[in-house]
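Private note to self, pasted from the team thread so I don't lose it. Backbone tokens:
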């Protein structure tokens, strides 16, 4: 997918996409970004298509997609596989919602522990430390 009229070096590509050179090399090893041929006695050149591809990868990462999932999405990027891409996104959405549920539970438990610490007066045993020793599962079973 490299632009044949590529005019920037790997350093220029890294700057254009706000990534490190080693990130580009890693993506190339993973097959997420093609490695342009090196002309005899020259250096590899990259173009707009490479910047677009890196932007795609970074955008997908920001949405929580793993590099393996991004690889799958890149195979579907011709636009004719919208149903398959949608299925990948639906799976990611379920994962995100499950993570949010776990984070909300963590928030609630930590909030209760902090409240217990603030309510504790004069006792040398810290309720937070005691709760951690007792185990969070025991606290949850009380609810």
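Design output:
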């Amino acid at each position: 997918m490299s632009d044949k009229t590529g005019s920037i070096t790997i350093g220029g590509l890294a700057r254009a996409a706000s990534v490190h050179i080693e990130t580009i090399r890693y993506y190339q090893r993973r097959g997420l970004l093609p490695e342009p041929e090196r002309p005899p006695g020259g250096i590899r050149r990259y173009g707009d298509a490479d910047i677009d591809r890196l932007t795609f990868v970074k955008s997908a990462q920001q949405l929580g997609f793993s590099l393996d999932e991004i690889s799958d999405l890149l195979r579907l990027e011709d636009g004719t596989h919208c149903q398959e891409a949608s299925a990948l996104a639906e799976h990611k959405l379920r994962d995100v919602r499950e993570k949010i549920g776990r984070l909300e539970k963590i928030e609630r438990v930590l909030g209760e522990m902090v409240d217990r610490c603030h309510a504790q007066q004069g006792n040398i045993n810290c309720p937070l430390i005691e709760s951690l020793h007792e185990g969070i599962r025991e606290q949850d079973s009380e609810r």
